[in-house]
Design brief:
FAD/NAD(P)-binding domain, Enolase-like, domain 1, seven-stranded mixed sheet, binds flavin-adenine dinucleotide, binds nicotinamide-adenine-dinucleotide
Length: 465
């Protein structure tokens, strides 16, 4: 029987990163993945394919809406949807192959099969009918998550679909009904809206992306509405019925009156649930929380001392970079180091256009906590760079402690916000004040000048607004 220092169950951005870091630290490492490709949700049916389709559809939207103004005649541009999906699949294959290479390079043993605990130090790997058992001193559970649904919805995966099917449709929907105005609903909603579908987003809460700062929800909804997406907030879906080619959603509107929506596809994007099915946790004695997550302490350790858990299967934001941070962190803990993650500084990004990105506290959270804070905002339209590229929508908002001037939150919507948020994360990691950032030189003309200006605005001295 093979014996390992560490075995990781699940090869998503949590699991494969943990495996590499364990190997780098000299630990004999194995990784188990039930699918034939490594990379988990993120690489196969999540971050990477969704961004590939967002980028392709963005090119089409620009060509049909903005090229003329730039002086480029692009008459007769058409979508080849099959090619768009094929290209997305190629991007996924190349990215997954990269993980195979990294496993080999780091001498990590890869087991393809379904991992389940026999006991706290032995894991069975089932592939078809063959069972292989390995022994492991430590195990990291990185089994991720699956889409959630509502109790009365039957996901037939043909007309009533999750993000996984929405990434591989055979045709562009005529009318895509989206239940849930969160990250998946808006990103994939925008893909199909740009490709010509009518898109209606039905959201239970009074605002879209409800956990983000209110300014972002408002600005994003305004912008997507202008692009043609329809929003029905404060709507409670009560039934979803399908016929061969049609989906009917019934919902209660703000006043409690029933309303009906008809479309040809319905994307259910109401969140994801931790995935621990058939993992044999009871054989190892590992406890779950009442929300179905694996219970961990602040060392990512479960109630069984040699078993750890990371990523979507534990508490916290369901984000690839959060899973990866935890993967590195747990490897270092097992190797005897003392790493630390500041969860307040895990950025959140929505890859719509305009992009939305945030880190730290929202204004709503500061108000609720009674924190005394200052605000500085700067509109993108005041930037020369934004006018040059015709990306004038959005703004950046900086929240700083009223007493110390330390930046405690940054919220941005606009072109390239997904990349720009890194500056806010670094500034906050080093506990910068808004004045520190305001006094740092930012190249001109760039979108990042909006960060400097917003920080200057905290002190009422923005130059260009
Ligand atoms: P996963 O990536 O889910 O990987 C878990 C792996 O474990 C899977 O491969 C699974 O097959 C395997 N597994 C499970 N059980 C077993 C078992 N018993 N035996 C063997 N293998 C097992 N996040 C971002 O940060 N940015 C984005 O842009 C982004 N876009 C997304 C878009 C979509 C459409 C979706 C659905 C998600 C997106 N996410 C994004 C979220 C991101 O994909 C997840 O947060 C991330 O993949 C979680 O990583 P993980 O390693 O915890 O789990
Ligand atoms: P989400 O939590 O982002 O959004 C779910 C939305 O559905 C919320 O707005 C919620 O209020 C709404 N909702 C819940 N129940 C509802 C109901 N009964 N009727 C109508 N609306 C309802 O979840 P998601 O969009 O499904 O994404 C799942 C996870 O994947 C998220 O945690 C997200 O972090 C991750 N993800 C991240 C990215 C990214 O980082 N860019 C992209 C896609 C997915």
């Amino acid at each position: 029987m093979s014996i390992y220092d560490v075995t990781i169950i699940g090869s998503g951005p949590g699991g494969y990163v943990a495996a590499i870091r364990c190997a780098q630290l000299g630990l004999k490492t194995a990784i188990i993945e039930k699918y034939n490709t490594l990379g988990g949700t993120c690489l196969n049916v999540g971050c990477i394919p969704s961004k590939a389709l967002l980028d392709s559809s963005h090119h089409y939207y620009d060509a049909t809406h903005h090229f003329e103004k730039h002086g480029i005649n692009a008459d007769g541009i058409k979508v080849n949807f099959k090619q768009m999906i094929d290209r997305k699949n190629e991007v996924v294959s190349q990215t997954c192959a990269g993980i195979d290479f990294l496993m080999k390079k780091n001498e990590i043993d890869v087991y393809t099969g379904f991992g389940s605990f026999k006991d706290a130090t032995h894991i069975n790997i089932t592939n078809k009918s063959k069972v292989t058992t390995i022994e492991s001193k430590n195990t990291i559970i990185a089994t991720g998550s699956k889409p959630s649904t509502l109790p009365f919805i039957k996901l037939d995966k043909k007309r009533v679909i999750t993000s996984t099917e929405a990434l591989s449709l055979k045709e562009i929907p005529k009318h895509l009904l989206v239940i849930g105005g969160g990250v998946i609903g808006l990103e994939l909603g925008q893909v199909y809206s740009r490709l010509g579908a009518q898109v209606s987003v039905i959201e239970y809460m009074p605002k879209i992306i409800p956990t983000m700062d209110g300014m972002l929800s408002k600005e994003l909804q305004k912008s997507l509405k202008k692009q043609g997406i329809k929003f029905y907030t404060s709507h409670k879906v009560t039934a979803v019925n399908t016929s061969e080619k049609e989906v009917t959603i019934t919902a209660d509107d703000k006043k409690g009156n029933p309303v009906e929506f008809k479309g040809d596809y319905c994307l259910v994007s109401v969140g994801r649930r931790p995935y621990t099915d058939k993992l044999g946790l009871e054989n190892a004695g590992v406890k779950l929380t009442d929300r179905g997550q694996i219970e961990t302490n602040d060392q990512l350790q479960t109630n069984i001392s040699n078993i750890y858990a990371i990523g979507d299967v534990v508490k916290g934001a369901m984000l690839a970079h959060k899973a990866s941070e935890e993967g590195e962190c747990v490897a270092e803990i097992i190797a005897g180091q003392k790493p630390h993650i500041d969860y307040n500084l895990i950025p959140g990004v929505v890859y719509t256009w305009p992009e939305v990105a945030a880190v730290g506290k929202t204004e709503e959270q500061l108000k609720e906590a009674g924190v005394n804070y200052k605000v500085g905002s700067f509109p993108m339209r005041a930037l020369g760079r934004a006018r040059a590229s015709m990306d004038i929508e959005g703004q950046i908002k900086v929240l700083a402690d009223a007493n110390t001037d330390e930046i405690i939150g940054m919220h941005m919507i606009g072109a390239r916000a997904a990349d720009m948020i890194a500056e806010a994360v670094i500034a906050m990691e080093f506990r910068a004040s808004s004045e520190d950032v305001a006094r740092s030189s930012h190249a001109h003309p760039t979108f990042t000048e909006a960060i400097k200006e917003a920080c200057m605005a905290v002190d009422g001295r923005a130059i260009h607004s």
